[in-house]
């Protein structure tokens, strides 16, 4: 059983110093908080060993520093790749039809929406949708049928509403 009280005391006594140290290294409070949190998680996972060290805070500080440096290197690598390969092409926003279909899908019950997404968007056969949703094949067919009918009604109402406004 880990020494919960010992770790809690260690954490409370060292967290501010460690966060301040890593913040000075990174210059970014959010990055520092993430690195310190990860270091404390690792210290907790190895607390039976770390607590026996002469200076557990030093071990945790080294771990937090390595995590922060690793993240910094990763960001630097991404920046270099960006400079080498250029910006990612912008993706055009969805068309109004897509927005209307998504809005209509959101109004369907979850079971129908899931069946429709698996069947039409992922192209799964009905039997596979049944396995994935843990429902009988007949139930999946009913959900698809009811979902299509509901979508047709929701999309037709949307079109009629627009026509009345014009």
From TrEMBL:
InterPro entries: RNA_pol_sigma-70-like, RNA_pol_sigma70_r2, RNA_pol_sigma70_r4_t2, RNA_pol_sigma_r2, RNA_pol_sigma_r3/r4-like, WH-like_DNA-bd_sf. Keywords: DNA-binding, Sigma factor, Transcription, Transcription regulation. One of its GO terms (biological process) is DNA-templated transcription initiation. Pfam families: Sigma70_r2, Sigma70_r4_2. It comes from the Bacteria. Coiled coil: none annotated. Residues 100-151 form the RNA polymerase sigma factor 70 region 4 type domain. Residues 11-76 form the RNA polymerase sigma-70 region domain. One of its GO terms (molecular function) is sigma factor activity. Belongs to the sigma-70 factor family. ECF subfamily. This is SigE family RNA polymerase sigma factor. It comes from Micromonospora costi. The lineage of its organism: Bacteria, Bacillati, Actinomycetota, Actinomycetes, Micromonosporales.
